[in-house]
C-alpha cells in the first residue's frame, strides 16, 4: 500500500460474528453523524408525546414490551447464544432479570416520580412548595456486549418509564441483540409513533457521534477507558453523564464463613459468563484459618466446570477476541510475580475458550490484582484479620460490587467496604433486586442504574413555589417591604437560628 492511501477506509457496514466459530451472523449499516442526528431529532419529536402520557399509559406500553419479549424468548435466547456466545440458560436468566427491571420501572415510576409537596418553612408559610420530576427528553444509551440486554436495559427501561425517548447504540459485538429488543418494543406497541426507542448501529465512532448529538443525557455502560473519553466529549455541551464502568470486585471470606457456600459462590462468580461480568468475582481475601479448605473446595468445583458451545457447557467463549490477550497477560504477570496456579494456567487458554484458572498468593501490585481481567480467572490471597482483608479489598481504583461471607459479621464488614454494593453470604444478590441501585465510584463510574435512584437519573427536578395568599407587610421580595417587617425579622431570626448551643 502506498503511504498516500488512507490507512483506514470509512466503514459503512458492521459485520456481526459468532464468537465461538467466527462465522458471520449478519451485517448492519453503520449510522454516521448525519444518521445519528436524524435519529435524535426523531426521538425529540417522539419524546414530546411519550413524556406527556400518564404513568399508567406508559406502564401499559412497557409491560406489553415485556410480554412480547417473553413470546419471543426462544428466538432471543438463540440470538444471544449465537452473537454473544453465552449459554442458552444464561441468556434466559439474563432475560428474566431484564423483565424484572422493566416490570419494576413500569410499576414504580409514578411512586418514585410523582409530585412531592414539601414544607415551605416558617418564613414562607404562605407558600405551597412542590418538587416535580420531569423527564429530561432524549437519552442516548451506549451499551456493552457482556450482558447485552440486562445491562443497557438498566438505563433504557428506567429512562422510558420516566417519560424520555431513547436512542440506543448497542455494542458492535451485540448489535443484532440490541436491535431485536428495540424491535420488540415497536412490535408490542404498533400504535406508538416511531422514535420512542430506536437503535443506531456502529462502532465507537457512532457512539461518539451520539455523545456529540443534541441529547439530554448520555447513559454509558462499558470500560473505564471509554467512559473517560465520553465524559470529556460530553463536557463540550455540558451533557450530563451516567457512567457504568468496570470493576475489580473483591470477596472477603471471614474465619466464621460457611466455607462451602463461599467456595460455591466464588467458583460461580469468577467464571460464569466466562468471567465477563462487571461485578464478577476477581479477587478473594480469605482468612488463614479457613484458607486451605476454601481453596481446595474452589478447585474441586471448578475442576468440573468447562466452557463450550453445546448444552453441556458451563459458560461460553470469550466474546471479544482482544480480551483473550488481556487474560493471558494477567496470568503471565501473576505467575511471574510469585503467584501459583492451583488450577489451570496459561494452557487453559484454548482459542476463544478459556478453562477456569485459580491463582493464589499473587503479588497485590500485579496486573491480575490491579486491572480488570474480565476472564474466568480468580486470585486468592490469605489474610490474617478482617482489617487486613478490608484494607486490601478497598485498595483498588475500582469500586463497584463486593461480597462478604461471614456468619456473624457480614453486615458489619459490608459497611466498611468501599463499593457501590455488597452481597452478604451470596454472590451478586444486589444485581437481581430491582429496587437496589447499582453502580460504582472512581474507575467504576458515576451515578446509579436501577431502583428509585436509577429512575431519578433520567429526570430533572422542577421546583414550584406557589404563593397561596399574601401576608400584609411580609412581602420580603418586594420594594413594598416595610421597615417594620425588617424589625420583625431581626427579632425572629435569633429565635429561629440563634439558639443552637
Ligand atoms: P467498551 O468501552 O469497549 O465499549 C462500550 C461501548 O462504547 C460500545 O458500544 C462501544 O462501541 C462504545 N464506544 C467505544 N468508544 C466510544 C467512544 N469514543 N465514544 C462513544 N462510545 C464509544 O466496553 P465493552 O468491552 O463493550 O464492555 C466491557 C466493559 O463494560 C467492562 O469494563 C465491564 O466491566 C463494563 N461493564 C460495566 C457494567 C456496569 O454496570 N458497571 C456492566 C457491564 C459491563
UniProtKB/TrEMBL annotation:
SUPFAM superfamilies from the UniProt entry: ALDH-like
InterPro entries listed in its UniProt record: Ald_DH/histidinol_DH, Ald_DH_C, Ald_DH_CS_GLU, Ald_DH_N, Aldehyde_DH_dom, Aldehyde_DH_NAD(P)
Domain of life according to the entry: Bacteria
Keywords in alphabetical order: Oxidoreductase
Residues forming the catalytic site: 244, 278
Domain Aldehyde dehydrogenase residues, every copy: 11-462
Listed Pfam families: Aldedh (PF00171)
GO biological process terms on file: aldehyde metabolic process
Entry's Gene Ontology molecular function annotations: oxidoreductase activity, acting on the aldehyde or oxo group of donors, NAD or NADP as acceptor
Gene3D superfamilies in alphabetical order: Aldehyde Dehydrogenase, Chain A, domain 1 (3.40.605.10), Aldehyde Dehydrogenase, Chain A, domain 2 (3.40.309.10)
Transmembrane segments: none
CDD domains registered for this protein in UniProt: ALDH_DDALDH (cd07099)
Family per similarity comment: Belongs to the aldehyde dehydrogenase family.
Name by which UniProt lists this protein: Aldehyde dehydrogenase
Organism lineage: Bacteria, Bacillati, Actinomycetota, Actinomycetes, Mycobacteriales
Gene: pchA
Amino acid at each position: 500500500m502506498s503511504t498516500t492511501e488512507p490507512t483506514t477506509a470509512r466503514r459503512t457496514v458492521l459485520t456481526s460474528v459468532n464468537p465461538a466459530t467466527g462465522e458471520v451472523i449478519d451485517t448492519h449499516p453503520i449510522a454516521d453523524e448525519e444518521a445519528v442526528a436524524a435519529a435524535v431529532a426523531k426521538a425529540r419529536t417522539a419524546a414530546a408525546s411519550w413524556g406527556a402520557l400518564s404513568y399508567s399509559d406508559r406502564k401499559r406500553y412497557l409491560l406489553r414490551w415485556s410480554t412480547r419479549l417473553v413470546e419471543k424468548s426462544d428466538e432471543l435466547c438463540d440470538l444471544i447464544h449465537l452473537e454473544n456466545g453465552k449459554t442458552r440458560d444464561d441468556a434466559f436468566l439474563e432475560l428474566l432479570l431484564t423483565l424484572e427491571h422493566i416490570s419494576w420501572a413500569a410499576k414504580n415510576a409514578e411512586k418514585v416520580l410523582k409530585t412531592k409537596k414539601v414544607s415551605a418553612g416558617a418564613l414562607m408559610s404562605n407558600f405551597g412548595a412542590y418538587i416535580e420530576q420531569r423527564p429530561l427528553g432524549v437519552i442516548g444509551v451506549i451499551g456493552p456486549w457482556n450482558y447485552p440486554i440486562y445491562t443497557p436495559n438498566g438505563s433504557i427501561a428506567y429512562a422510558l418509564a420516566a417519560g424520555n425517548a431513547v436512542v440506543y447504540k448497542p455494542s458492535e459485538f451485540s448489535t443484532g441483540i440490541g436491535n431485536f429488543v428495540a424491535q420488540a418494543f415497536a412490535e408490542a406497541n404498533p400504535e406508538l409513533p416511531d422514535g420512542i426507542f430506536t437503535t443506531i448501529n456502529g462502532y465507537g465512532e457512532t457512539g461518539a457521534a451520539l455523545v456529540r448529538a443534541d441529547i439530554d443525557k448520555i447513559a454509558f455502560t462499558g470500560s473505564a477507558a471509554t467512559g473517560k473519553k465520553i465524559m470529556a466529549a460530553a463536557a463540550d455541551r455540558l451533557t450530563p453523564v451516567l457512567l457504568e464502568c468496570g470493576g475489580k470486585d473483591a470477596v472477603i471470606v471471614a474465619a466464621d464463613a460457611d466455607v462451602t457456600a463461599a467456595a460455591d459462590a466464588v467458583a460461580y462468580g469468577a467464571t460464569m459468563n466466562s468471567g465477563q461480568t462487571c461485578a464478577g468475582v476477581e479477587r478473594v481475601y480469605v482468612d488463614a484459618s479457613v484458607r486451605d479448605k476454601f481453596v481446595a473446595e474452589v478447585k474441586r468445583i471448578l475442576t468440573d466446570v468447562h466452557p463450550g458451545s453445546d448444552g453441556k457447557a458451563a459458560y461460553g467463549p470469550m466474546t471479544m477476541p482482544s480480551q483473550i490477550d488481556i487474560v493471558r497477560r494477567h496470568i503471565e504477570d501473576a505467575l511471574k510475580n510469585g503467584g501459583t496456579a492451583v488450577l489451570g494456567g496459561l494452557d487453559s487458554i484454548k482459542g476463544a475458550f478459556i478453562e477456569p484458572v485459580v491463582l493464589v498468593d499473587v503479588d497485590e501490585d500485579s496486573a491480575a490484582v490491579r486491572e480488570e481481567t474480565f476472564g474466568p480467572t480468580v486470585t486468592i490471597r490469605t489474610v490474617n484479620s478482617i482489617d487486613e482483608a478490608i484494607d486490601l479489598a478497598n485498595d483498588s481504583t475500582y469500586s463497584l460490587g463486593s461480597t462478604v461471607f461471614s456468619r456473624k459479621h457480614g453486615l458489619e464488614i459490608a459497611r466498611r467496604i468501599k463499593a457501590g454494593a455488597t452481597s452478604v453470604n451470596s454472590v451478586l444478590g444486589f444485581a437481581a433486586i430491582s429496587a437496589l441501585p447499582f453502580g460504582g465510584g472512581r474507575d467504576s463510574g458515576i451515578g446509579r442504574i436501577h431502583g428509585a435512584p436509577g429512575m431519578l437519573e433520567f429526570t430533572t427536578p422542577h421546583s414550584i413555589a406557589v404563593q397561596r395568599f399574601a401576608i400584609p407587610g411580609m412581602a420580603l421580595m418586594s420594594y413594598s417591604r416595610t421597615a417594620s417587617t425588617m424589625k420583625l425579622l431581626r427579632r425572629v431570626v435569633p429565635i429561629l437560628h440563634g439558639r443552637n448551643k
